[in-house]
Amino acid sequence: MAWNGTARHDEARHGIGPCHDRIDREGQQHSHLGAAMRSNTLPRRSMPNWHRVRAVDLVGACRAFVSVGEHGSFTVGAAAARMSQSVASRRVAALEERLGEQLFQRTSRRAVLTAFGRDLLPAARDVVRAAEVLLHEAEAAKHRPWRLAVPETCSTTALARLVAEARRHGVTLEPRRAAPARRREYVHSQQVRAALLAVPPDEATWTVPLGLAAAEEDHGVKRLYLETLRAGRASTGPPRRVWLQPEDDVPHIRDPLTRLRDALGLRPAQLVAAPDLMTAAAEVLCGDDLLLCSPAQADELALAWRPIGEVRLSRGFALLTAADGGDPPPIEGPSRIEGPLPTEGPFPAEGPLGDAIARCLGADHRARATGPTGPTSGRTTA
Known about the structure:
Elements lengths: L1 H13 L3 H21 L19 H14 L2 H7 L4 H15 L4 E3 L4 E3 L1 H28 L3 E6 L4 H13 L4 E6 L1 H9 L5 E6 L6 E9 L27 E3 L6 H14 L6 E3 L3 H9 L4 E4 L1 H6 L3 E4 L5 E9 L30 H10 L21
Parallel strand pairs: 3-4, 3-5, 7-8, 7-9
Antiparallel strand pairs: 1-2, 5-11, 6-9, 6-10, 6-11
Helix pairs in contact: 3-4, 3-5, 3-6, 4-5, 7-12
């Protein structure tokens, strides 16, 4: 045993024996591999391990490869690709290292495609074209307008101010007026990217107080009670009517008014749903009827507005985007987020644009009703 140990020690010391033979064989294999890489004859079985190869800017490398391959010169190809020759050389070399084969046979004057390079050139062109298409689409998406379905009650002035505010924050807004049901249809069919839906006030992000507006100011009256519209036996003329515009012909507004009408003994014809705001406003302006509206609308139409005495009514609005598809997404409030506003993804309905939407809807108007017993303010509440 001692002799065998001494013999193995001597063999290792003098470079002989099976151990050293294995080392020599491995060294020869590495030497052959290096020579194969230098001579562009790297065997397929010797492809490099990807986790050991440095990362490559694939698009930039393909762009350099295509340009040099088409022009047959690193100098000319680099100039055509708007990069320096050294950058083009580094990118092509990195791509060759990544792929495990040489793409060019390099001479002092020309760069000639290898068979491997000729096979890969069409695919590299596809990569470059796909990257150019992606960049073009990304730039177009940045300027694609946000089509937003808004209530028909939004005035032209209010919408213009909303669009201007959005532009100041890098958002191109394209409002589209529509009735409540149509707004939901628009967003579900993706004709718009977002819509302000009519929802009950307890589900809303923005609420707008509603009251009754008349053509003539009745000084000394702070609230208008519907029971005063009940026609007496001695009445000879037609009873006063309350006109609902399409925006308010929704269950959470229409149904409470209908129940109140019946409870007070008013005639069914005294609560009328108009086909549009113009028709309802015309009936009020030419007679003694009343319009259910917001304080902002009353100001715009030069009508005298008062809250309703028996019931508190409000319009509610929540945002629904085409990406949501279902129920309105939860939004914490119109003023919770500050800073840059995104042009893609969820509609930027918070921060400054949330405040602008509130103003457009009339949610921040100076006249507000907080309930039958709450305070009111504004020119119409004497």
